[in-house]
Amino acid sequence: MKKDNLKSQYRVNEQIRAHDVRIVGDDIESTVLPTRDALRLAEQKGVDLVEISPNAEPPVCRLIDYSKFLYQQKKRQKEMKAKQVRIEVKEIRFGPQTDDHDYNFKLKHAQGFLSDGDKVKAYVFFRGRSILFKEQGEVLLLRFAQDLEEYGKVESMPVLEGKRMTMFIAPKKTAPKKAAPTAQQPASPLGGAPAGISLVIDDVIESEERPMLGDSVAENGEPDRKKPQQKARKEYTGPKVEGEDWDD
């Protein structure tokens, strides 16, 4: 059976060994009493005497139901645990002669780790006589740190330990980016048509209803269109031919 650490952490009632204690609690004035009197007061109120600060002088005890006290402590520990930020350490391994393709592949992974809030442990592993290229491994790690400058900061510079040269990079604390608000287009009177198109259509309709130049406007507001004037016939002054009627 799992042992409850909280129960073994606090002394209660007759387990309290101090001669005098300071009592606290709800609707109770803080005062120093002999432990025997404090136990009698707790019994009168129907609660327990719980030692919450044994290292104080005198020890501090609280008048409270012991089960309720344990519940409050467990709830507080749970809330504190939920507020703690859990940071994982992701390892990325290089060789002293890592090519560009492998380097860019691991760089992309490191950027993702740092963006998620995790630490990155980058190290170069030297096999056999490759330890002779330790300067090359250090240059590789420094280049790696420089390429991740926007995502994290170096916690410790490259350090050679045995056959490993290690460097730690911590994520930067940046505020989450807020999406820029997009300007809403005005509602279109033509259902789902965009507002720009509806404005063009309105201009066309208005131009069709607008009277043309030279048209008069009647009292009711509608254009008074005049009939086209007929041109006067010109009289023929040339020679006449017999048999034709020139009066028509």
Mind sketching the topology for me?
Layout: H1 5-9, E1 11-12, E2 20-25, E3 28-34, H2 35-45, E4 48-53, E5 60-64, H3 66-83, E6 89-94, H4 100-115, E7 119-125, H5 134-147, E8 152-161, E9 164-171, H6 195-209, E10 216-217, E11 223-224
Parallel strand pairs: 2-5, 6-7
Antiparallel strand pairs: 1-4, 2-3, 4-5, 7-9, 8-9, 10-11
Task: Describe this structure as you would to a colleague.
With about 250 residues, the chain is an alpha+beta fold. Among the domains are: about 10-80, Ubiquitin-like (UB roll) (Roll); about 90-170, Translation initiation factor 3 (IF-3), C-terminal domain (Translation Initiation Factor IF3), CATH 3.30.110.10. About 30% of the residues lie in helices and about 25% in strands. It has a five-stranded mixed sheet. A four-stranded mixed sheet has the order 6-7-9-8, covered by helices on one side. Strand 2 (about 20-25) and strand 3 (about 30-35) form a beta hairpin. It starts with a helix and ends in a 24-residue tail after the last strand. Residues about 175-185 and about 185-200 have low confidence and may be disordered.
